[in-house]
Structure prediction request, 181 residues.
Amino acid sequence: MDWLATIGVAFWAMLPAYVPNNAAVLAGGGRPIDGGRTWHGARLLGDGKTWRGTAVGSTAGFLLAWLLNVLQPGASGALGVPFPVFPLVATVTLPVGAMLGDILASFVKRRSGRERGASFPGLDQLDFVVVALVLTALAAWPWFGETYTLPVLVAVLVMTPLLHVGTNVVAYALGLKNEPW
Ligand code: CTP
Ligand code: MG
Prediction:
């Protein structure tokens, strides 16, 4: 595969993990997951992690994975790029892992004294990808190994922070997000 095809495969293979965070931003609000509970004087997760955002985000990623599966033969044929087909487990673990990673990051941020919305460079950009990939590797081996080859993983790790920063700046500019990270 040439490098452009590798980037295309990486993007396709990560879309079900990319979309949940953005969908959660659009859908967020309502009851926080931690119900307002605190631990050692700080919120467990904070008001930025809600049931509705998590449910809508996970569902959006799940539906997108199925849409991509429908589009896969046409797209692969037209572009000559071997886009992956997501097995059932991966259509769940990619979006749910992404949401879990984001929730875990908020837990870590609250423990380190950061208020809701504070930035944590590195963690903010990669939390969701790492948990989505680890969960998928555990649940969908050997598909994971065949799909996320070393070049694809490198592309994911380079591309994700750039996309994350880019989409958040756009969401901030549109007034959808309170901070540009
Ligand atoms: N959101 C949500 N549920 C989630 C994730 C996100 O409702 N599981 C919504 C919230 O409205 C949140 C917004 O998406 O404010 C932006 O998400 P994020 O940047 O992850 O949250 P922050 O508000 O910045 O809070 P934190 O510091 O905990 O990341
Ligand atoms: Mg944030």
